[in-house]
Amino acid sequence: EKAIAAIEKGATGFLQTTAAAKLRQLTIDMDLGSADRDILSAFLSTGSSDRYAPQSGQIIGILKQMLDTMKKDLSDLTAAEEEAIKNFEELSAAKTKEVEANGAAIEAKTERKGKVGLTIVALKEELDDTEKSLADDKKFLADLDKNCATK
Fold first, then answer.
1. By three-state DSSP, how is residue 21 classified?
2. What are phi and psi of 135, to 5 degrees?
3. Are 7 and 59 in contact (CB under 8 A)?
4. What b/e readout covers 95-109, taking b as 16+ CB neighbours within 10 angstroms?
5. Whether the Cβ atoms of residue 32 and residue 40 lie closer than 8 Å to each other
6. Of 7, 12, 75, 94, which has the highest C-beta tally within 10 A?
7. Is 37 buried (19+), middle (13-18) or exposed (0-12) by CB count in 10 A?
């Protein structure tokens, strides 16, 4: 914008400014037609803007077109970035909920595992007690059979 305003006003010494240096870089980086690039290059290589007589306004037109293109590109990129940020935030929120749900599931399963472990220990003790009781009952039965046989 500064470059366009300076050229429209016919400012002398424009080509020595940082705006001109940026403009030179843009003519290299931007997607321009070869005719437009040649016109801009010729203008920027004249050495000083007071020798340039903008009879047709081509330079200003090209610069305005470049500015419009850059503004549109900036707008598109900004919109794309905002959409990406929105998508990231949505994904992040979904993943946070997923992590919380998985954490709750892990806690529930850990608790269930602990209860099952206690139940297994209790059943093993009960089995051991039952086996001892069976052995005692068999011994008692054997003694009873022996006592009955002797009577």
1. helix
2. -60, -40
3. yes
4. eeeeeeeeeeeeeee
5. yes
6. 7
7. middle
Q: Give the C-alpha separation, 126 to 114, whole Å.
A: 18
Q: Which residue has the tokens 């929120």?
A: 93
Rounded CA separation 99/94 (Å): 9
Structure tokens at 37: 């690039």
Q: Which two tokens stand for residue 9?
A: 């006003």
CA 138 to chain centre: 72
Instruction: Read off the amino acid at residue 32.
Output: L
Residuewise pLDDT in 10s, the chain (151 residues) = 766 776 666 655 566 667 667 777 777 777 777 777 777 777 666 654 444 455 446 777 888 888 898 899 999 999 999 999 999 999 999 999 999 999 999 999 999 999 999 999 999 999 999 999 999 999 999 888 888 888 7
Reading the block at residue 14, the tokens are 């424009």
